[in-house]
Each structure stands twice: as structure tokens, then as C-alpha cells.
Specification:
Length: 779
């Protein structure tokens, strides 16, 4: 590895006839990546001996691989030397596109899991889809979200290897295509273990027949190519909503079937036709319901190709599969119309019916009445196939992703299943990898921590607890605060460059970044800012520490209300920036195109982390963990992993407000937001800005729609379905308390410090270890 620098130079010369100084950024990126790739075998994970875990996920939100891989390979220093020898800024690759093959938290979790698996030496291989276009890129025009395609491959994909010879035939009702694997090595920290991320690309069976010009055969071949490539052309941009689209089902079946056929093929090389060892050789984790069609598909492959009985195939499937639930919200639970399912994969439908019949038999044997059986139906009376039910019934493990979420699954959302299969339910609180989210994203804080307690936290995050002995050491807290100020200045510079907006780094940085969704309540944050704005104007609020409210969020392109919220926040920002009475105290900035690389800049710079979802709606959250690890206080509801964050770091070091799950349970049947609206002038005033002409939505009707959703209800939702008005005043109180506490710099930074010191639990190394022990039985 000592010749890494020479290899980069040689590759530049051979591939591009150029030198480091002359090379373009993309050439340099490809050469550096290729030189690093020469040190690993991308297929190591798939070829490895012993039990392997297959993580099936429709999304892997990887972000930029190059720095992470250099870090984990131990090449970051050589790379930095090489760059400085040539007077090149090591941040040069920040122009390289993110691999954004995911929407948000669920996809980013999959990426963190891969990093942790390889680092703690679990054979964890990822299987997914190689979308040509990832999550759309976002920009603003007059405050409205606009979208463009994410052509991430235009910089090249030097971290993957195409394995043409391992392609797999996939058959739909009226179409057959190949799934061609692209393998990316997943390099653990220290590079002891290299696992594989195998992403499948759809291609036609035949190559273009150039001979057959002017022939109907040519036309047919063009059509086949277009239809095949469509399958992996683009990522669906919906986060936490089920669109129920035909192409989506095709994507799901495509990568599930390809992965299973690949696994069976590799299994048979070792074990031949003896399938008795299958579930000891493979564990398959289903990341949400997107790959659940793999269950009937495995049974189909076993019965049709290996001559197994249903009973035997079902037993192996149950032992092999485990399912992770990510949501309890109705609009996100995947269901397929039987009719659609049958037009795409009729051969698989037969096996869904078999599983459904086996379920009915089992329910009957458990003494459950025919009426009560209905709530378990995999195929219900309206001809909908319930994928979560299929997954719970035909696997051995169902896990939630934070303590409170799993409790809700057991006691409410999936209670009937918990009653009959309590042993299948377990919790695995999500986590994040500290390599990306601290070691790389915040080198200043990393250096500080290693200086104080050594660097073993990089692979053992619980070690951060050793920092606690400094919690009353004013000099140490001062140093810690100085680092936060450096990160705030860096973010301010970056925002200046990206957005053309200046932010004063002395302001409090109060940050909410995550997908735009009604349940995440960015609109509540907007209302609180307006209430503070009016409070400052009227003199009701005094001694306010200047604050920059920073937002980042993409709205699904078809999600009208979410887009309305973006426009509304941008309008507030504009009004405040033009108002000389307050613009020395308040600022609202909505950064464009929030993605993993932006998150790496934003999370280290926050003073306040906004985690304000309606209690009971955010399964876990992982953004909250990134902020905590980097030393921010959480301003949040008692929801998702926030519960565990304050359990670890102390409620006194965070700002928890609002209705809890049990409070909402009590009020939900009688809740009338109109009562609150009519009885509280402050609330009425901020809500009325949606309709009283304070702001202009350019005649789109967006703001009126938001207003109606709060007071009249919209779509199938009740008025104020997410309890914004219920929580608004307690939220503003908590926000102003945090603002006031900021005046005592030492006390505030001490809270931040205690958060960092207690973030150990939220390493995805811990999460993966727990999956490995409890579910996969590989540790
Ligand atoms: C971590 C992360 C998320 C998840 O954020 P939540 O606040 O947990 O919803 C979404 N998008 C990106 C780019 C992330 O890095």
C-alpha cells in the first residue's frame, strides 16, 4: 500500500495521459478511486465462507464514497500528502456527485449498516437496485421547489465492478430481462473485512442487432431495451408513502428475485441439492416491506426449481427471513392490488395464495374466530395484498427501530400479531456510523476527543463516556465550544458559497434538516418562528439571542402540501430578511438540495437540533443521532429515538416538549383544532398568515390548502392530523428556554458536551452487533 501515491500517478498516465497537476477533478477522482480499489476484492463478501447476512434494501443512500474508503483503508494520510505536494485542496472531490440511491433515513440506515458490518467483522452484504438516476436534485425558483434529474453516473462509477458473467434471468408476465450485478466493496475501518454491495441493473436479453437495420427486428430490439432499462432507470422519490405503482412492483421483484437466485446458485456450489443447511448459511434481512416479495419468490424457486414441498420451503423461508418495520403510518404501509400483482408476477401470486391459506389454517388451529381472522388476512376482502402481514407471518423476526416504536408495534399497530407470536417481536434501535458522522465530518472534534481519551471510540463509541470526567472542566468545555464555533464558521462559508446568503456565525444555529413531511412538522417550526417574529416586533419577547433557523428538505415532487410548506418557509425567510426591525436577530435560511454531503457539513455546526415529529409518528430518526454525536442539544418531542437520547444524555441537557403518545391517545377522538385557533390570538395570528395576504403563493392555492388541512381536514386526514396547534405554545416555550440558556455559554456548551459524551449507544456498530446476536445468529 506504500505505493498508493505512485499508483495514482501511473493510472493518470495510462488512462488519461495526464499528470496530477494537469488532471481534471473527474480524472483525478477516478484515478485515486481506482488505485484504492486495487487493494481490495469487491466480491470478497459474497465469496466468503461461513454464514452470510444478505441485507435486501430498495435504497442505499451512500453519499460520497471516496473519503470514507480512503479513511477505512488507512490511505487518507497518503492521499492528503499527495494533494498537498501538488498544491491541491483535499476537498477537491466535493464536486463529485453523491450516490443518492435512496430517499432519506431508511436508505442512509442501510449505508451505515454496511459500514458497521464490515467494521465489526460481520459478513453483511447489501443487495439492491442500481438506479441510473438517484433522488432528484432540488433547487428553488421564487421560493418554490423545482426538480432536476440526478445523473450521478456522469462522474463515472470507479467504486463498482460490473460482473457480466454473473447476470441472472428475471421473468415477468410479458417480459424477460437480465439483472446484471455491479459490485462495490464495502471496506471496514482498518480494512480487516471487505464486504460486498451488489446492485442489480436491468438490461435486455439481446444486444442491439445492428445487422437488422430497416427490419422490424430492430424496432423490436429497441423496444425491449427501453422496457428493460426502465426497471432500474429511476428511484421513486416518495419517502414514507406507498405509491402502489406497477413499475415499483417490478423493481421490487427484480432485485429480490435476482438476489435470491444468486444466493441459491452460490449455495449450491458448496452444498449441491442438500438444502438442510440453507438457513445456517444465509440470513436475509428485509429492510421494510419493499423486498418482502422475496418470501413467496424463495418458496417458488424452491418448489419449482428444487422440487421441494411447500411445507419444507415455507419452513426454510421462515428460518431465513427477518423483517424490519420502519413505520406505523397507514399511508406508508405497502399493499398491492391483486389485479396489479397478477399482471406483473402471476407466477408469484400463486405462492402468496399458498402462504395466505397456511395462515388461515394456523389461525384456526389457534382458535381464532373467523371474524377475528380478518385482521390478519394477507389477501384481504378488498383484494389487497398486505406486505407487512406477509412478512410477519412468513419470517421468524419482526423488529422495530427504536424502543418506543417497537412498543407501539406490540401494543397497538401490530397488536394482534404480537398476541399470537410474541417471540417474533424485538427492538433494534437504529444507529449511525461514527466513521462518517464524526471522524470524517468533524475532524476538529475527532482530534479533540482523541486527544482527551484516545482514539478507540472510532470502533467503540461507548468510549465517549470517558469524556464525562471533563464535564465540569471549564477549559475543556471552552475548547469544545471553540470547535463548535469553527464548524459554524465553516458552515456559514459553505452556505455563502452554495446559497449566496450570509449568516452570522455568532447567531444560534437552530437546524431542522430531514425529508419534508407533514408528520415531521416543519410547518410547526415555521409557525414558531412567526410567533417569535411577532413577539419581537411587539416587544413581548425581550433579551432574545440572535438565531439563524436553518432548514434543508426535499419534498416528494407530487406532494403538494409539502411543497407548500417549503414555499411558506421561504416566504417567511424573505419577509424577515427585509425587515430591519428584526433582521439583526432573526434569520431563516432554506438550503437547497439537502443530501448526505450537505448533512456532513450541517450536523457538526448545530447548536439546536430540531426533532419535532408528532409523538408516535417518527419510528426512530437518525438525524437526531448525528446532531447529538456532534454536540447539539435536542429540541424535540418524546418520539422515536429522542426518547433514548434524553435517557442517555439527561432530560436536563435537552429540551423536550409537547404531547406524548399517551396524551394524543387520550385526546384524539375529541380533538378540535378550531377551539385552540379561536381561543388563542397568538396561534390564530400565525395560522392566519396562510390566508390573510401576509404571504403570496403566486396563486397556486398552496397556502389555503395548508390552512384547510389544519382547520377543516384534507384528503383522508382529520383537521390538524399532526397536532400542530396542540403543541405550538409548549414548543415556543421550549425554544425560548433554549434561547435563554444560550446566554450562559459555559452551561450551554456543557449540555452539548454531555450529549456527545453519551452518544455511544447510537453507533450503528451497536445496532449491527444486536442484529447479529439476536436475529442473524452470527456472533
Ligand atoms: C440522516 C439523514 C436523513 C434522516 O434524517 P431524519 O432526521 O432521521 O429524518 C435524511 N437524509 C439525509 C441526507 C441524511 O443524511
Amino acid at each position: 500500500m506504500s505505493n498508493f501515491k505512485t499508483n495514482v500517478k501511473t493510472i493518470l498516465e495510462l488512462d488519461y495521459s495526464t499528470t496530477i497537476k494537469e488532471a481534471t477533478t473527474i480524472q483525478l477522482y477516478n484515478a485515486v478511486s481506482k488505485a484504492a480499489m486495487q487493494t481490495v476484492n469487491p466480491e470478497e463478501g459474497i465469496q466468503a465462507k461461513g454464514k452470510k447476512v444478505c441485507y435486501l434494501s430498495a435504497e442505499f443512500l451512500i453519499g460520497r464514497l471516496v473519503y470514507n474508503n480512503l479513511l477505512n483503508l488507512g490511505l487518507l494520510n497518503q492521499f492528503s500528502e499527495l494533494m498537498s505536494e501538488n498544491n491541491i485542496d483535499i476537498r477537491i472531490f466535493e464536486d463529485i456527485e453523491d450516490a443518492a440511491l435512496g430517499n432519506g433515513g431508511l436508505g442512509r440506515l442501510a449505508a451505515c449498516f454496511l459500514d458497521s458490518g464490515a467494521t465489526i467483522n460481520v459478513r453483511l452484504n447489501g443487495y439492491g437496485l442500481r438506479y441510473k438516476y438517484g433522488l432528484f436534485k432540488q433547487y428553488f425558483e421564487d421560493g418554490f421547489q423545482m426538480e432536476t434529474a440526478d445523473d450521478w453516473l456522469k462522474c463515472g462509477d470507479p467504486w463498482s465492478v460490473r460482473r457480466e458473467e454473473e447476470k441472472i434471468l428475471i421473468e415477468f408476465k410479458n417480459q424477460s430481462v437480465y439483472a446484471v450485478p455491479y459490485d462495490t466493496p464495502v471496506i471496514g475501518y482498518g480494512a480487516k473485512t471487505v464486504n460486498t454491495l451488489r446492485l442489480w441493473q436491468a438490461e435486455p436479453l439481446e444486444n442491439f442487432d445492428f445487422e437488422a437495420f430497416n427490419d422490424s427486428k430492430y424496432e423490436k430490439s429497441v423496444k425491449e431495451r427501453i422496457d428493460a432499462e426502465a426497471i432500474t432507470s429511476v428511484l421513486y422519490p416518495n419517502d414514507n408513502t406507498d405509491a402502489g405503482k406497477k413499475l415499483r412492483l417490478k423493481q421490487q421483484y427484480f432485485f429480490s428475485s435476482a438476489s435470491l437466485q444468486d444466493i441459491i446458485k452460490n449455495y449450491k456450489v458448496v452444498f449441491g441439492n442438500d438444502f438442510s443447511q440453507f438457513s445456517s448459511e444465509y440470513a436475509i434481512q428485509l429492510n421494510d416491506t419493499h423486498p418482502v416479495v422475496a418470501i413467496p419468490e424463495l418458496i417458488r424457486l424452491f418448489m419449482e426449481q428444487e422440487g421441494m414441498t411447500f411445507a419444507k420451503a415455507f419452513k426454510i423461508a421462515k428460518e431465513t427471513f427477518a423483517y424490519t418495520n420502519h413505520t406505523v403510518m397507514a399511508e406508508a404501509l405497502e399493499k398491492w392490488w391483486v389485479k396489479l400483482f397478477k399482471t406483473v408476477i402471476p407466477n408469484v401470486y400463486k405462492y402468496v395464495v399458498m402462504i395466505h391459506k397456511a395462515l388461515l389454517k394456523e389461525l384456526k388451529s389457534l382458535g381464532i374466530s373467523e371474524e377475528d381472522q380478518k385482521k390478519y388476512y394477507i389477501i384481504d376482502e378488498n383484494d389487497l395484498i398486505h406486505m407487512a402481514r406477509l412478512a410477519i407471518y412468513a419470517s421468524h423476526s419482526t423488529n422495530g427501530v427504536a424502543w418506543i416504536h417497537t412498543e407501539i408495534l406490540k401494543n397497538d399497530a401490530l397488536h394482534e400479531w404480537y398476541e399470537i407470536y410474541p417471540e417474533r417481536f424485538n427492538n433494534k434501535t437504529n444507529g449511525i456510523t461514527q466513521r462518517r458522522w464524526l471522524a470524517l465530518a468533524n475532524m476538529e472534534l475527532s482530534g479533540f476527543i482523541s486527544d482527551k481519551i484516545g482514539n478507540s471510540w472510532i470502533t467503540d463509541l461507548d468510549k465517549l463516556k470517558d469524556l464525562e470526567k471533563f464535564k465540569d472542566d471549564k477549559a475543556v468545555i471552552k475548547q469544545f465550544g471553540d470547535i463548535k464555533n469553527i464548524k459554524k464558521r465553516q458552515l456559514a462559508d459553505y452556505i455563502k458559497k452554495q446559497e449566496g446568503i450570509e449568516i452570522n456565525p455568532e447567531f444560534i444555529f437552530d437546524i431542522q434538516v430531514k425529508r419534508l413531511h407533514e408528520y415531521k412538522r416543519q410547518l410547526l417550526n415555521a409557525f414558531s418562528i412567526l410567533d417569535i417574529y411577532y413577539g419581537l416586533k411587539e416587544g413581548r419577547i425581550k433579551d432574545f439571542n440572535p438565531t439563524a433557523f436553518i432548514f434543508g428538505a426535499k419534498a416528494a415532487p407530487g406532494y403538494f402540501r409539502a411543497k407548500g410548506i417549503i414555499k411558506f418557509i421561504n416566504e417567511i425567510g424573505k419577509m424577515i430578511s427585509e425587515d430591519k426591525d428584526v433582521n439583526d436577530k432573526l434569520q431563516v435560511v432554506f438550503v437547497h438540495n439537502y443530501n448526505v454531503s450537505y448533512a456532513e457539513k450541517i450536523t457538526p455546526a448545530a447548536d439546536v437540533s430540531e426533532q419535532i415529529s408528532t409523538a408516535g409518528t417518527e419510528a426512530s430518526g437518525t438525524g437526531n443521532m448525528k446532531f447529538m454525536l456532534n454536540g447539539a442539544v435536542t429540541l424535540g418531542t418524546y418520539d422515536g429515538a429522542n426518547v433514548e437520547i434524553v435517557q442517555q444524555a439527561g432530560e436536563e441537557n435537552n429540551y423536550i416538549f409537547g404531547a406524548r403518545v399517551e396524551d394524543i391517545e387520550k385526546i384524539k377522538d375529541s380533538y378540535d383544532p378550531n377551539v385552540i385557533y379561536n381561543s388563542n390570538p397568538r396561534i390564530k395570528r400565525v395560522v392566519d398568515t396562510l390566508i390573510d395576504g401576509t404571504f403570496d403563493d403566486n396563486g397556486t392555492g398552496m397556502f389555503k390548502e395548508l390552512y384547510d388541512s389544519l382547520l377543516k381536514g384534507a384528503s383522508w386526514h382529520k383537521p390538524d392530523n399532526y397536532y400542530l396547534l396542540e403543541d405550538l405554545l409548549s414548543y415556543v416555550d421550549a425554544k425560548l428556554q433554549a434561547n435563554k440558556d444560550f446566554s450562559d455559554t459555559y452551561a450551554f456548551r456543557r449540555k452539548c458536551f454531555i450529549n456527545t459524551a453519551n452518544a455511544g449507544k447510537f453507533s450503528s456498530d451497536r445496532t449491527i452487533h444486536d442484529y447479529a446476536v439476536d436475529i442473524w445468529k452470527v456472533k
